[in-house]
Write a structure and sequence with these properties.
Layout (H helix, E strand, L loop, with lengths): L13 H4 L3 H17 L4 H19 L10 H23 L3 H24 L8 H23 L4 H23 L2 H31 L12
Helix pairs in contact: 3-4, 3-5, 3-8, 4-5, 6-7, 7-8
């Protein structure tokens, strides 16, 4: 007698050879369909990054009085922090490791920025504030270098954005570490440029969704 396993067409009959195969395949198809139903979270993450970065950079560049800098705290908590963190979680759901890592990390950056200024900065001696802030920013600059390398497989504008953010972090970091106002202001202007570029990418994503086709140039670096 010829069994199902020995049957010459057994590999073409997964449901008969393995009763669970059909259910597993169906579950995978349903999971894939559910992921496709999730809207692209990248424009939200980019918008949150853009607005918060732009607002803080107004103070760093000297275009807004430093005394007005606390206005950033609420935005850093709600938008740059929580909204970007949510965007990162949705990127995990869509299987985008790069987007998930970027948005979750920078969301955590803004949450930690808010927490630092709200709860912990007062516990650091005044003469050490520059050292603390400087090394914090430099460490985030190193992380951004790693993400810049990953962005080289995305689009030209996104890769350029990460390059500008790297410059901004290191200028701000060394400016704070050495007490050089000129570096801090230069980092602030780099941050303004980064915010504008992130807004551009946000708009490009939103318009692509609403118009059903690419509207703003954002050339892929792949292929």
């Amino acid at each position: 007698m010829t069994t199902i396993v020995d049957h010459p067409n057994a590999d073409l009959m997964p449901d008969l050879a393995d009763p669970t195969a059909g259910r597993v395949a169906q579950a995978r198809e349903m999971a894939s369909a559910q992921v496709q139903l999730i809207a692209d979270p990248a424009p939200l993450g980019l918008a949150a990054f853009a607005l918060t970065t732009f607002l803080l950079s107004l103070a760093n560049s000297g275009l807004m009085p430093v005394a007005a800098e606390p206005v950033v705290l609420g935005v850093a908590l709600a938008y740059g922090g929580l909204a970007q963190l949510l965007a990162g979680m949705w990127e995990f759901k869509k299987g985008n490791v790069f987007g998930a890592t970027v948005f979750t990390s920078y969301g955590a950056f803004w949450l930690s920025f808010w927490a630092y200024l709200t709860f912990y900065a007062g516990g650091i001696p005044a003469e050490q504030h520059g050292v603390a802030a400087g090394w914090l920013l430099i460490c985030w600059g190193i992380f951004t270098v790693l993400m810049f390398l990953g962005s080289l497989r995305t689009t030209a504008v996104l890769a350029a954005l990460f390059a500008v953010v790297v410059v901004a972090f290191f200028l701000l970091g060394f400016g704070a570490l050495n007490g050089i106002t000129g570096l801090t202001r230069a980092g602030g202007f780099a941050g303004l440029l980064a915010g504008a570029m992130a807004w551009y990418l946000c708009l490009a994503g939103v318009l692509s969704s609403t118009f059903g086709r690419p509207v703003l140039p954002n050339k892929s670096l792949v292929g």
